[in-house]
Amino acid sequence: GLQLKDDKRVIEVIQDIADQLPASGGRVLSASQWLERFLFPPKRQYAYVSTLSGGERRRLYMLTILVQNPNFLILDEPTNDLDLITLQVLEDFLEDYEGCLVIVSHDRHFMDKLVEHIWVLEGEGKIRDFHGTYSAYRAMLEVEAEEQAQALKDKNKPKEAEKALPTATANSTKRKLSYKEQREYETLETEIANFEAEKVKLTTELNSGKLAYNELAETAKKIENLVEAIDTKTLRWLELSELVG
After folding, report:
1. Is 90:55 a contact under the CB 8 Å cutoff?
2. pLDDT at 170
3. Please, which residues bridge with residue 90 across strands?
4. Cβ-Cβ contacts under 8 Å for 91 (sequence gap 6 or more)
5. Lower CB count within 10 Å: N or C terminus of the chain?
6. Dist. CA 117–CA 137, nearest whole Å
7. Residue 111 in contact with residue 139, Cβ under 8 Å?
């Protein structure tokens, strides 16, 4: 679909649109400056379109679209047919683009550089609306997987405790808690509840889409540490409750 006239010089293709064209930040660039930005040096700007390579033709065609300053762009799998040089030029342009950009893509790196809001097609008519980068979305999935695994583990704990109870009862005589154990038992429930509340708070922050990449990793690590602490304290609480019971 590259409709470029072979008998035109490269610079003439852009000058046919305008000699001076708007850029981001209120700047105005000449046709020659735009071509340099898209990797056409001054000598190459006066070459005929018929002499261009496939990658050069794509860059020139892309430029004829972008210099018209559209306020809405839809890119459908833009990385499929572009060489690395052309792709880098496109990424650089889109990072400064001030309009609305919709990208359909399987390229994680490309999305991570450019998007800040994701719709994930999960199948069976389900669409997840996520505000944030692709890396943030992946981090959220990891946290969700950990929470589901923990929920399943917590669900099975009472059954495991019930199985262990007859043996413990048959082989040991219950004793009273020491003063230190009694104080520990009384504070464990509060500590567990506080940790659970902190985990909910951090998970909400993680899913907000407002955290930078380094903050996402740090928050995910904090949640992981909280889950471990909750597990440890819950097991200790079960041990002490057996003695209390």
Report:
1. no
2. 45
3. none
4. 110, 113, 114
5. N
6. 10
7. no
